[in-house]
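Lecture notes, unit on protein representations.

Consider one protein chain, 120 amino acids long.
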Amino acid sequence: MMTLIRKVLGFIILTLDRLFAPAPEVTRAPAAQVALDQKTGTWTLYHLEACPFCVKVRRHMKRRAVSIPMKEINEAPTHHQELMAGGKIDQVPCLRYRDDAGVEHWMYESSDINAFLATL
């Protein structure tokens, strides 16, 4: 029964997300956008497609014109294994990134991730 409920809710979440996709609210100079894309191109967002918290982060990324490679943890076992090996917490969304000093971070919580992305 719970599986059916999750599938129905997931379908509703994804349908609403597609119907009401946000438009980018941030416009950068082409050189600035390329620089940001290069920086975030080495990051990874671990997510589940129908997770409402993951949808929240993906929508924020679209509004902020931030492109981050994503790995759906149910799509391939290696994606989930990477998350567990590095972040050690079985939770999505999870943003893996390296700061300017080269230190790797694993950030959880959609609100924290969105606040961090807003600083870019």
